[in-house]
Amino acid sequence: MTITFRLSSPGDRAGVLAVLAASRGEGLSAQERAQQGFVQGSFTEEMLARVEAGPGVVVGVDDSGAVVAVAMTMTQTPAGGPPASLGLYMRRHHDDKRWAMYGPVAIASSHRGRGLMRPLLAEVSRRLDGYELAAGFIDADNAKSMAVHTAVGMTVDGYFTVNARRFAVVTFRPGENFSPTE
Question: Where does this protein have coiled-coil stretches (predicted)?
């Protein structure tokens, strides 16, 4: 089966929302969520439309056209919560850089462990070429996501706290030869 990576279109929104919702880890214990990874926040078609208007949502689609991987990119952080705190962190620590937000990222459970993170991030990196830095945040309790992101070569740049929850800031340089090793 071939997976193609590209920017999403309005016709992909239901698939994007399904992958993100399934990746929230609802119904799992805290330990299971940490081991399997999880996505934060809820998303709507309207939110996706706004994100698509920026650098966009990178999707991986299988031969049938089903969305199996998702990575959002934004140039403006949404107001409130961890995204706003990421923006504050970046202004404090990287005010001299042109940066874009990366994430959330999710891979359908049926396709995890198949090496999709590498080409997904390579497409994100290509789409963000021209930015000096890409930054995302990961809940410090999300052991799986922390392990995957550091294994693919992202840097843990620092941490911030929101509502007593600790988040790691992960960064990479877009446009470079992104050769992660999932």
Answer: none
State the DSSP code for 129: B
Q: Is the dihedral of CA 82, 129, 133, 108 positive or negative?
A: positive
Task: Give the predicted TM-score (pTM) of the model.
Answer: 0.89
Mean pLDDT over residues 155-180, rounded?
Answer: 86
Residue labelled with tokens 């999880």 = 38
Q: Where are the domains of the chain?
A: 4-172
Environment class of 66 (CB within 10 Å of its CB; exposed 0-12, middle 13-18, buried 19+): middle
- For every residue of 46-71, DSSP letters joined together read HHHHHHHTTTEEEEEE-TT--EEEEE
Token couple for 29 = 């214990």
**May I ask the CATH architecture of the domain 4-172?**
3-Layer(aba) Sandwich (3.40)
Nearest to 169 by CA among 153, 156, 150: 156
